[in-house]
From TrEMBL:
Record flagged with keyword Disulfide bond: yes
GO molecular function list: scavenger receptor activity
GO cellular component: caveola; cytoplasm
Gene source species: Bracon brevicornis
Pfam family of the protein (one): CD36
UniProt lineage: Eukaryota, Metazoa, Ecdysozoa, Arthropoda, Hexapoda
Principal subcellular localisation of the protein: membrane
Top-level taxon of origin: Eukaryota
Keywords of this entry: Cell membrane, Disulfide bond, Glycoprotein, Membrane, Receptor, Transmembrane, Transmembrane helix
Subcellular location: Cell membrane; Membrane, Caveola
UniProt-recorded name of the protein: Scavenger receptor class B member 1
UniProt membrane topology term: Multi-pass membrane protein
Length: 53
Protein backbone atom coordinates (compact mmCIF):
# COMPACT_ATOMS: atom_id res chain seq x y z
CA UNK A 1 0.00 0.00 0.00
CA UNK A 2 1.09 3.53 -0.72
CA UNK A 3 0.15 6.23 1.74
CA UNK A 4 -0.20 9.76 0.42
CA UNK A 5 -0.26 12.59 2.89
CA UNK A 6 0.18 16.31 2.15
CA UNK A 7 3.76 16.15 3.40
CA UNK A 8 4.88 12.87 1.85
CA UNK A 9 7.39 12.78 -0.99
CA UNK A 10 5.02 10.72 -3.10
CA UNK A 11 2.26 13.30 -2.73
CA UNK A 12 4.58 16.18 -3.60
CA UNK A 13 5.83 14.34 -6.71
CA UNK A 14 2.23 13.58 -7.72
CA UNK A 15 1.15 17.17 -7.15
CA UNK A 16 4.08 18.65 -9.07
CA UNK A 17 5.96 16.01 -11.09
CA UNK A 18 9.68 16.66 -11.57
CA UNK A 19 9.24 16.12 -15.33
CA UNK A 20 6.47 16.95 -17.79
CA UNK A 21 4.09 14.03 -18.28
CA UNK A 22 2.19 13.69 -21.55
CA UNK A 23 -0.23 11.08 -22.83
CA UNK A 24 -0.48 10.51 -26.59
CA UNK A 25 -3.70 8.94 -27.88
CA UNK A 26 -4.07 7.61 -31.42
CA UNK A 27 -7.43 6.69 -32.95
CA UNK A 28 -7.79 4.49 -36.02
CA UNK A 29 -10.74 4.59 -38.43
CA UNK A 30 -11.52 1.55 -40.55
CA UNK A 31 -12.04 2.91 -44.07
CA UNK A 32 -13.25 -0.28 -45.77
CA UNK A 33 -15.23 -2.34 -43.22
CA UNK A 34 -17.68 -3.92 -45.69
CA UNK A 35 -15.04 -4.99 -48.20
CA UNK A 36 -12.87 -6.37 -45.41
CA UNK A 37 -15.71 -8.37 -43.86
CA UNK A 38 -16.57 -9.85 -47.26
CA UNK A 39 -12.93 -10.90 -47.64
CA UNK A 40 -12.42 -8.75 -50.74
CA UNK A 41 -9.72 -6.42 -49.38
CA UNK A 42 -7.13 -6.13 -46.67
CA UNK A 43 -8.07 -3.91 -43.75
CA UNK A 44 -7.39 -0.22 -44.41
CA UNK A 45 -6.94 2.15 -41.49
CA UNK A 46 -6.68 5.93 -41.24
CA UNK A 47 -4.65 7.13 -38.28
CA UNK A 48 -6.05 10.12 -36.44
CA UNK A 49 -3.90 11.84 -33.90
CA UNK A 50 -1.94 11.97 -31.83
CA UNK A 51 -4.07 13.80 -29.34
CA UNK A 52 -1.71 14.91 -26.60
CA UNK A 53 -2.89 15.49 -23.04
Amino acid sequence: KLTMTPTSTVYLMWKKPPIDVYLKVYIFNITNPDEFLRGEEKLKLDEIGPYVY
